[in-house]
């Protein structure tokens, strides 16, 4: 998608009607459950469940983080991405762009929900959307990233369709204009986009998501010239020309299990895995921010906290527009 896709712009603009952080986000606040679940530390219960899952597998970190992003981007932060498909409805999670979401992310939320509902005074009082928000903060921190106060008070969404995902998630081939066109209407600035992109500091990707950059970038340049040549050869060694979609590699070749500013240092060296990563450095409009955060991890972390907090305000459901699911994977 080297050419700007007007369908992406149209889809993004359509989202402004109901996804901008407006009236729904006004109900969000810290310590929301202090009076709803008295004498119960909801965030600690989630943290304990997330920590246990994290100790079982590191995939919990990128799985949960990506689930949060994919959820908020489509119909707002309402846990609609967790809903299972039924014979009568193909849910968001079964849209092609979501098929690579790690099951450990879903499992983390479901187990945390079970731990909360095991307490009678708190049963069916905490939304799956809020649990996902808390769990996302916790996996970031467990991987070495910042801890921060989360805003809570979301309801769970009442709709989840695969069709609703189309055109609403950034693609690995996107350039800066396409990223801005998709995310700016949701209330996310270019700096927010650059900060949130550092989620690629942890986790892995399958070879078919970037194979065009190492084998068929253009007739004159089979390998993307913005790729570090040694890194490109390393990628070719791990990903054969006839791409096996089951093969996955770390998105950060240096500190793949640490949430840090190495992401930006890699971009400066031509080691951004996706076009949408490397463009943040090759485009002169975003390069200064990449350079600043490559040099200052604390500044990056502050920016990331601000950006993910704004992300969590998108499309918050209130009143009759949502409820609290008994089962995160199914509507009541």
From TrEMBL:
SUPFAM superfamilies linked? Heme-dependent peroxidases
- GO cellular-component terms in the record? extracellular region
Please, one GO biological process term? hydrogen peroxide catabolic process
| Signal peptide location | 1-26
Question: Is Transmembrane given among the entry's keywords?
Answer: no
**What are the residue positions of the site described as Transition state stabilizer?**
66
Q: How is the cofactor bound?
A: Binds 1 heme b (iron(II)-protoporphyrin IX) group per subunit.
The cofactors named for this UniProt entry are: heme b; Ca(2+)
Give the top-rank taxon of the lineage listed in the UniProt record for this protein.
Eukaryota
| Cystines in this chain | 37-122, 72-77, 128-328, 207-239
Q: Which parts of the sequence belong to the Plant heme peroxidase family profile domain?
A: 27-332
Provide the active-site residues from the annotation: 70
Using the UniProt record, name the top-level EC class of this enzyme in a single word: oxidoreductase
Q: What is its EC number?
A: 1.11.1.7
Q: Which reactions does this protein catalyse?
A: 2 a phenolic donor + H2O2 = 2 a phenolic radical donor + 2 H2O
Positions with a binding annotation for Ca(2+) 2: 252, 255, 260
A molecular function (GO) held by this record is: metal ion binding
Keywords per UniProt: Calcium, Disulfide bond, Heme, Hydrogen peroxide, Iron, Metal-binding, Oxidoreductase, Peroxidase, Secreted, Signal
Q: Does the keyword NAD apply?
A: no
Binding-site list for substrate: 170
Q: Where does heme b bind?
A: 200
Q: Which residues bind Ca(2+) 1?
A: 71, 74, 76, 78, 80, 92
Q: What does this protein do?
A: Removal of H(2)O(2), oxidation of toxic reductants, biosynthesis and degradation of lignin, suberization, auxin catabolism, response to environmental stresses such as wounding, pathogen attack and oxidative stress. These functions might be dependent on each isozyme/isoform in each plant tissue.
UniProt-recorded name of the protein: Peroxidase
Please report the organism this UniProt entry assigns to the protein. Answer: Stephania cephalantha
């Amino acid at each position: 998608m080297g050419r700007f896709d007007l369908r992406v712009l149209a889809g993004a603009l359509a989202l402004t009607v109901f996804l901008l952080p407006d009236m729904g986000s006004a109900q969000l606040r810290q310590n929301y459950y202090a009076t709803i679940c008295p004498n119960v530390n909801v965030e600690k219960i989630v943290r304990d469940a997330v920590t246990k899952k994290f100790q079982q597998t590191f995939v919990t970190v990128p799985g949960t983080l990506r689930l949060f992003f994919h959820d908020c981007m489509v119909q707002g932060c309402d846990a609609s991405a967790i809903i299972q498909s039924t014979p009568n409805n193909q849910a968001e999670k079964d849209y092609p762009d979501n098929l690579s979401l790690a099951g450990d992310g879903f499992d983390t939320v479901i187990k945390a929900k079970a731990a909360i509902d095991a307490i009678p005074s708190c049963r069916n009082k905490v939304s799956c959307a809020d649990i996902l928000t808390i769990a996302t903060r916790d996996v970031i921190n467990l991987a070495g990233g910042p801890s921060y106060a989360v805003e809570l008070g979301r309801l769970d969404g009442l709709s989840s369709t695969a069709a609703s995902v189309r055109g609403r998630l950034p693609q690995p081939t996107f350039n800066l204009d396409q990223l801005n066109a998709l995310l700016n209407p949701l209330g996310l600035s270019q700096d927010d986009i650059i900060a949130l992109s550092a989620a690629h500091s942890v986790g892995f990707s399958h070879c078919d998501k970037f194979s065009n950059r190492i084998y068929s970038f253009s007739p004159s340049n089979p390998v993307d010239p913005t790729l570090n040549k040694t890194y490109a050869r390393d990628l070719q060694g791990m990903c054969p020309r006839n791409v096996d979609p089951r093969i996955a590699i770390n998105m950060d070749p240096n500190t793949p299990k640490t949430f840090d500013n190495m992401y930006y240092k890699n971009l400066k060296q031509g080691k951004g895995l996706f076009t949408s990563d490397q463009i943040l450095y090759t485009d002169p409009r975003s390069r200064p921010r990449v350079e600043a955060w490559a040099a200052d991890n604390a500044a990056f972390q502050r920016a990331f906290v601000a950006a993910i907090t704004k992300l969590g305000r998108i499309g918050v459901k209130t009143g009759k527009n949502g409820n609290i699911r008994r089962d995160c994977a199914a509507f009541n």
